[in-house]
């Protein structure tokens, strides 16, 4: 079985972006601070930097951690 991770959909609110289609809710604030659940935060330089970290580093690692890849 093979699968791809779909692109993350970001919803824009007044002062933050929230992931809309992930099993972990990511909240990125205008100053680049990223909340990735249960009091966990990562400081990034910008919103774009935080989104890149979520999309290319953290979320793929969580997929690998919680889902078993079978072939």
Question: Secondary-structure map with pairings?
Answer:
Blueprint: E1 10-12, E2 16-19, E3 27-29, E4 33-35, E5 41-43, H1 47-66
Antiparallel strand pairs: 1-2, 2-3, 3-4, 4-5
Short key terms for the protein model shown above:
71 residues; alpha+beta; 1 helix; 5 strands; elongated
Describe this structure in words.
By secondary structure, this protein is an alpha+beta fold. The model has no long low-confidence stretch (mean pLDDT 92). The N and C termini lie close together (4 Å). The chain has 1 helix and 5 strands. Helix content is 28%, strand content 23%. It is elongated. It has one domain.
The end-to-end span amounts to 4 Å
Helix/strand order: EEEEEH
Strand content: 15-25%
User: What is the helix content?
Assistant: 25-40%
Main sheet makeup: 5 strands, antiparallel
Number of strands: 5
**Mean residue pLDDT:** 92
Sheet with the most strands: spatial strand order: 1-2-3-4-5
Poorly predicted ranges: none
Number of domains: 1
**What general outline do the C-alpha atoms trace?**
elongated
How many individual helices? 1
What is the alpha-carbon Rg in Å?
13 Å
Q: Structural class, please?
A: alpha+beta
